[in-house]
Design brief:
Number of helices: 17
Structural class: alpha/beta
CATH architecture of the largest domain: 3-Layer(aba) Sandwich
Strand content: 15-25%
CATH class of the largest domain: Alpha Beta
Number of domains: 2
Number of strands: 17
Radius of gyration: 26 Å
Strand order of the largest sheet: 8-17-16-15-14-13-12-9-10-11
CATH topology of the largest domain: UDP-N-acetylmuramoyl-L-alanine:D-glutamate ligase
């Protein structure tokens, strides 16, 4: 098994493999480890499936020949379809070990299981012409599909699709996970993602979100020690209520909602402070006991909302900005936040990210890192492939959670969770990671077609797993 926290780009993977070679391990030895490890996964998951392995000319194809021979020795009915002769020494050696049948593409017929070893890490151009046609024919004709390292046509560092790509049941990462394993649209086509360890050791700024270890409150703690989260209510009060409830269920010691007269609090234990004008709100937010101000959910986008946001931005408090707050700021976000004297976390979804970021070129990782650097904020770039980044360039990729999270209000819940985690320990990047994990886990624990309120009810269950 791989170190799940380690995600390497193409260059990082190449450098890591070169380090092994420099230490005296040959490419042939690495190929043998990768191929036999992948074959073990395939044999365990589908031992009786007749298997066609599609081998390319490079080292990914060499892995395929090793997989084929290993499966053959285990008694599996297996054949190889080759796009051409191997072009690397290691791949040539691997082919020399193969004792089974090798078919040219024109003669190859689909079999029950298809194993894609055409191209892996580092592909930069699309597969086209007859090669693509044969790949699609053999892949789509199978009942079960396995990609070795990456599906052929998936861009390693961006998750983009360079050509049409089949949907796979299993993807076996070799040596390390790559960004494409967790970035859309490629990641949506990979099925279960597992990994084979070949001894790679490398340091990367890109990590995979893992279950956090969260300390329970000390017995000597009081409500302010655990943190006070201030939530600003606006034109659509329901969103602020969801955020406040989520903060309360995520460990905050005290949650207050600041609202105009007439607002109805979600429960008796969430305190509401009312203001009749902006000056009163300014005074209320000067309370030194406030650990973080959450603004944006349901704020509105009119002139009054803009004035409220300005008061919050000038409050010299840690901030979490979401939803309407980001739409109001738009392209001024980085400029307004860069010199804020306290930590800032922003949680845009794809549309809000486009509104606040001026950068358009690069992967989702690149764009998120650029905004974090320009704004000085922690960015939680939400979506089915959420990316978290800090201004130093550290990145967390979020593995898939429940698709039922794609409903109105769950983003407000995430904002509340993150705010509560920050209020407890004052580390914004850690809070973003902890909050995202709790949100994802609560989504998995909740029944299908859940509401935001049901999601909130499952936060303590997710939190319990981290204690």
């Amino acid at each position: 098994m791989l170190n799940h926290g380690q995600i390497l780009t193409t260059k990082e993977m190449q450098a890591a493999e070169q380090m092994l070679v420099d230490d005296g391990i040959s490419i042939i030895e690495l190929m043998d480890k990768a191929g036999t490890g992948a074959a073990e996964y395939i044999a365990r998951s589908a031992p009786e499936y007749p298997t066609l392995i599609f081998c390319g000319p490079g080292n990914n194809g060499g892995d395929g020949y090793i997989i084929a021979q290993t499966l053959l020795e285990k008694g599996t009915e297996v054949a190889v379809a080759a796009s051409g002769n191997p072009t690397t020494d290691a791949a040539k050696h691997a082919k020399s070990l193969w004792k089974g049948e090798t078919l040219n593409l024109q003669d190859a017929k689909p079999m029950r299981q298809f194993v894609d070893c055409l191209f892996g890490t580092g592909l930069t151009r699309p597969i086209t012409g007859d090669l693509l046609d044969h790949h699609q024919r053999l892949c789509n004709g199978a009942q079960r599909r396995v990609a070795v390292d990456l599906p052929s046509g998936a861009a390693t560092d961006t998750g983009a699709l360079l050509n049409p790509v089949c949907a796979y049941d299993l993807t076996i990462a070799l040596g390390a996970f790559k960004p494409a394993h967790f970035l859309h649209p490629a990641s949506a086509l990979m099925g279960d993602v597992v990994g084979v360890d070949i001894g790679v050791s490398a340091v990367s700024q890109i990590r995979l979100l893992e279950k956090p270890s969260i300390n329970p409150p000390a017995y000597s703690n009081h409500k302010y020690k655990r943190g006070l989260v201030a939530v600003i209510a606006g034109a659509m009060p329901g969103a602020a209520k969801l955020a406040a409830l989520a903060a309360q269920r995520s460990g905050a010691g005290y949650v207050k909602i600041f609202a105009q007269t007439g607002f109805s609090p979600p429960n008796h234990s969430i305190v509401t402070e009312y203001h009749c004008d902006l000056e009163q709100l300014r005074k209320q937010l000067s309370d030194e006991r406030i650990d973080i101000i959450l603004i944006g959910p349901g704020l509105g986008r009119d002139e009054q909302a803009s004035k409220i946001l300005n008061i919050v931005l000038n409050s010299e408090k840690p901030l979490l900005l979401d939803a309407d707050a980001l739409i109001i700021l738009e392209k001024n976000t980085a400029k307004r936040l860069k010199h804020h004297s306290h930590p800032v976390i922003i949680t845009p979804h794809a549309g809000e990210f486009m509104a606040v970021s001026s950068a358009t070129q690069g992967s989702k990782i690149d764009l998120t890192v650029q905004l974090a650097a320009k704004s000085g904020a922690i960015i939680v770039h939400k979506g089915p492939d959420s990316v978290i980044a800090n201004p130093k360039g550290d990145v967390t990729l979020v593995p898939p959670s429940s698709s039922w999270l794609s409903t109105a209000g769950t983003g407000d819940v995430l904002a509340g969770i993150i705010a509560a985690r920050f209020a407890g320990h004052k580390n914004p990047y850690l809070a973003a990671n902890q909050g995202q994990w709790l949100h994802s886990r609560a989504g998995k624990l909740a029944a299908p077609a859940f509401s935001p309120e049901i999601l909130i009810d499952h936060i303590p269950k997710a939190l319990q797993e981290c204690l």
